[in-house]
Amino acid sequence: MALKRLYDAVLIDLDGTMVDTAPDIAAAANRMLKEFDAAPLPFDTVTGFIGNGVRNLVRRSLHATGLDARLDLEHAHAVFERHYAQTNGKLGRVFPGVASGLHALRQHGYRCACVTNKPGGLAAALLENSGLAAFLDVLVAGDTLASMKPSPEPLWHACRLLGAEPARGVLVGDSPVDVAAARAAGLPVVIASYGYAHGEAGALQSDALIDSFDELPALLARMVPAAQQIDVDASVK
Length: 237
What we know:
Layout: E1 9-12, E2 19-20, H1 22-35, H2 43-47, H3 54-64, H4 73-87, E3 93-94, H5 98-107, E4 111-115, H6 120-130, E5 138-140, H7 153-162, E6 169-173, H8 176-185, E7 189-192, E8 208-210, H9 216-222
Parallel strand pairs: 1-4, 1-6, 4-5, 6-7, 7-8
Antiparallel strand pairs: 2-3
Helix pairs in contact: 1-4, 3-4
């Protein structure tokens, strides 16, 4: 029996959606702070800074420790990235169900892109080392364009690269930034409840929630309005 499908392109956030990167990021942030003779920040505090780009995370880390009054953001940003290049992919883990969920999406004919605010070099290395790159057709990173999420531009760009109309795309993420980007781009958004929304995933006004990434293929099939269903080639298994 052919799967019914409304969407062609699945755009997927990285941090907090596919990979639990918080341990890597917190370690790098606190190594940066140690280099500046500041006390480390609690893990949950740093996790709360994730999702709006590395520069914003560094800025908030400096502000939280009072370093912003005496340190140049550009210098601190460079120090953080030096430390993060060492911790990237070392302490975190791929969330359960992500690899199997991505495999199922590909088997059903979806084209998949990672759309992240993480810098391209760090994102590409993480995806390659985690084995997730093999499931993804496109990477749109925080430095791919002049703007990043919550701008709609990265989502539209990913759709163009995948050869899909935005109306045939859906975003999967875990944060208010993802919801705002999807709304601006005119895409539906699915939120991963296990991500970095800190128990507030249900309040993000998404179109749907998943508790595990491998729920996504079945969810997308259920999201298809009956009047708009299309047949996927029955040969896709």
